[in-house]
Each structure stands twice: as structure tokens, then as C-alpha cells.
Amino acid sequence: MSYDVVPMTEEGIPTPSIITRGANEISGIDTMIIDSGFVQDPAIPFIKTGLGAARDGSKEKALPGYESALAYGSYLGALIDNKYKFIFIGESVPGGTTTAYTVLSSIGIKEMTSSSMKTSPDGLKEAYANKAFLRKARSENYSENISEFGDYMMAMALGISKSVKKSTLFYAGGTQMATVFYLDSVINNPVNRYVFTTGYIMKDKEKLM
Amino acid sequence: MSYDVVPMTEEGIPTPSIITRGANEISGIDTMIIDSGFVQDPAIPFIKTGLGAARDGSKEKALPGYESALAYGSYLGALIDNKYKFIFIGESVPGGTTTAYTVLSSIGIKEMTSSSMKTSPDGLKEAYANKAFLRKARSENYSENISEFGDYMMAMALGISKSVKKSTLFYAGGTQMATVFYLDSVINNPVNRYVFTTGYIMKDKEKLM
């Protein structure tokens, strides 16, 4: 599926969020925006957590509020569990494929992540991860690695998953959400979890599935 | 029911919210905090709307974002309708009994509201309402009166009610929530709405029930 025009706002800003919004409105899907480290608040209702942006994991611990993010996610998961049959978690994290790569790498999985850019800056990601591991040695503990090198979307999603016991939870996206799915399967050992993604990712990242 | 000690936080701040929290935790009731004009964000997850505090209705239009508050409430109501059998709306609005009194007065209902203070400052409330009506004449239109003299809690509650069609909605509180119940019954003409309150309010405010 592709369009022969670029989707744009009335002000001329090109963004795929227009397609997402259209799909949500037509389908009647209920959506909830969760602050997993917002730098700036959106101008529509959303769940504010005040976690603040993640830090630069190559220089310092990335998620000082890791435990809070887990607890907030757990609270939110409990609110929606068994209220909706299907729950989909998506993300929009600047630099998120880099943190996903770094966390995967920290737990010994050598899989490059994709990018929103035409050419994935693989070299930059590797350099970032190497710098981070020089700052702080990788741990055997998955949660510790996430709090050192990850992003708050991961922590929030893991917290949500912790409380979702009756609904079916989908990680909807690409290599980042496949990474969270994998972390979740190891940390939370949940049931009814799926990755909602493309055939390309399924083939390319079968280690995570 | 009363305690022989004042409920206090560990830092010594006396607040009935400790009893509320205890009751919520023991009962397992799901709670969601909604920003209906917060001046300051709480340090726990909540629904941020960014409406900003209501203005002083005796000096200017109280709710410049009245329509937004309705729309936000409607969005939130749709999220929870039919997901929970019972929905309770409560409030904590500084000066909220004054805005409730003023709105009631604006629609021709001469009922004094209660107060969190030992002695309700009835004279102050009446003076406030009179000043507001000098600034802006009362309208036949209920919604216009709310936007001129009310508070965002009213608008948010009315928006929620607009979308709640299958769950049963309770206005839980005193004279303020009885006021919203009354406004809702006129504006939205809903079914399955109740006031969850004390026998004192039931007897004293039967005009609103």
C-alpha cells in the first residue's frame, strides 16, 4: 500500500500521523497516549507521568526513573486489562532504534535494528553502544541493562504487560517493538503476547520472535 | 463514621486523601485522575488536558476552553463507557462551591451550596455571583452560563456524561456534584445517572435531584 501524495497537515507539515488518525477514526479504535519520557506535552489529552526524557545512556544511567516507569505502566495496564479484548502498544521514540540496538547488544543478541531514515546509521548505533558499555559494563540482569541503556517506552511497555493478564497484548511496530516483545517474554514470562509487524521483520528478526 | 485521630502523611500533612487512598486500595477500585484545570501537575500518572486553571468569572469569561473541556470529557467517557459497569465522578475544585452556587443562581435556582469550611461563606458567594452577573447578564442557555460562571470540572463531567451510554454514572459528592447532576439532566438528558451523596444533601437539595 502506498499513496501517490505525501500526507500533510493543513499547515503543510508532512506526517504519517494523519493516516494513523484517519485509520483510528474510521475504525473506532480507542486510543490513549502515554507519556513515556515526553520532552514536550502534546496539545491533546494524554496520560502524563512526568518521567522526563531519558538520559544519554552512553554518558550516564539512561533511566533514573526505571522503577517508577514500571509502576506507572503496571497501574495503566491494570486499568485496561480485561476491559479491552485486544491491546496494541505502539511507540514513537526519537533514537529508539539505537536504544533498542544497545539493549539487545547488552544481552548478547547481535541484531541490527531498523531506522526511520532511508539508510540506517548502523555505525553510529554501534559506536553509541560501545561507548555505553565502556561507561558501564553489561549485566546479566536484563532489567538493569534496560535501566542503564534503554528508553522509557520499554519500561512502560514492560510495566503494562506485567498487569495485562486477560487481554491479548500486541507489540505493534518494527524492530523496537520486537525487542520489547523479546524482553517481555524473558522478564515477565506472559501469555497472549504477539508482535504485530511486517513480513520483513518476521523473517529478519526471527531470533526475537 | 469518624476517627479519633487526624489522618496525616508521613511528613505530618493532614488530609482525608489518605482515607480515600486506603479505601481505593482495599476495594480494588480503579481510579483515574483527570486534569480539569490543574494549576500544578500531581506527581503521579494522570490525564493531562492542559486546559489551564479557570478564570475568575466575576471579572472575565471563566472557561475560555469550555468546548475543549467538553470534547476531552467526551473522549474520556468513550474510553470507559461499557468497560466499567459503574463510573463515579468526584471532584476537588478550589472555590468549587462558589462556582456551583453561581451557576445554579444563573439558571434561576436559589439554593446555597455547602463548603469545606466550618461556616460556609454564603455572603462571599452571593457577592461573587452578583459581581459576575453585573459583568455578564445571565443567559437562557445553560451551557453559556457554565462557560461564563462555572468551572472546568463541570464541563469535563458533562463531556464524560455525553459519551457514557451503557455504564451507570454516579456523581459522587455534595452540593457541587448534585449541581452537575442537575445540569447534566437538563443538557444531556441521559439515562442511568445518580447522585452518590449523604442523606443531608438528599433532603436539603431535593430541587436538584
Overall mean pLDDT score of chain A? Answer: 94
Q: Could you name the CATH topology of the largest domain in chain A?
A: Rossmann fold
Question: Which sequence of SSEs, written as H and E, runs from N to C of chain A?
Answer: HEHEHHHHEHEH
Q: Tell me the overall shape of chain A.
A: globular
How many E-type strands of chain A? 4
Task: Detail the poorly predicted runs of chain A.
Answer: none
Assembly state here?
homodimer
Helix count of chain A equals 8
Helix fraction of chain A by DSSP (H/I, runs of at least 4): 40-55%
Number of domains of chain A: 2
Ends apart, CA distance between termini of chain A: 25 Å
Q: Per CATH, which architecture of the largest domain in chain A?
A: 3-Layer(aba) Sandwich
* Major sheet summary line of chain A: 3 strands, parallel
Question: Under the CATH scheme, which class of the largest domain in chain A?
Answer: Alpha Beta
Describe the structure.
Chain A is mostly helical and 209 residues long. In chain A, 43% of the residues lie in helices and 8% in strands. In chain A, helix 2 (66-80) crosses helix 6 (152-163) and helix 6 (152-163) packs across helix 7 (175-187). Chain A starts with 16 loop residues before the first helix and ends in a 5-residue tail after the last helix. The model of chain A has no long low-confidence stretch (mean pLDDT 94). The A-B interface holds A 30, 32, 35, 41, 43-50, 72, 75-76, 78-79, 83-84 and B 30, 32, 35, 41, 43-50, 72, 75-76, 78-79, 83-84. Strand 1 (46-48) of chain A pairs antiparallel with strand 1 of chain B.
